[in-house]
Write a structure and sequence with these properties.
alpha+beta; Thiamine_BP; four-stranded antiparallel beta sheet; 29% strand; MTH1187 family thiamine-binding protein; single chain; Alpha-Beta Plaits
């Protein structure tokens, strides 16, 4: 299982706010509930699941602002793909909390 940290940034919109775009991304992610997990953070969205599926989803998320009228989109992604043991968002947070 992999975790993707994604930030989709529409550029040149009428407003400096991007919350409407972020809401659209999360509405899109709802259709994958059950096969992936996702979490909204203050600066990005975390998505957990099979890497091949996540990469397809990342491409679709990148395209969504274009469909909403954006002329330019910058997307940042980070992939955490650990293969020596199962990896979940909850386990990563719990591991740090146990050390605090």
């Amino acid at each position: 299982m992999a975790i993707v940290d994604i930030t989709v940034i529409p550029v040149g919109t009428a407003s400096p706010s991007v919350s409407g775009y972020v809401a659209e991304l999360h509405k899109f992610l709802q259709q994958y509930e059950g096969s992936i997990k996702y979490e909204l953070t203050a600066m990005s969205t975390l998505i957990e699941g099979d890497l091949k599926e996540l990469l397809k989803i990342v491409q679709q998320l990148h395209e969504l602002p274009f469909e909403k009228g954006a002329q330019r989109v910058c997307t940042n992604i980070r992939i955490d793909d650990r293969r020596d043991k199962d990896l979940t968002m909850e386990q990563k947070v719990k591991s740090v909390q146990q050390k605090l």
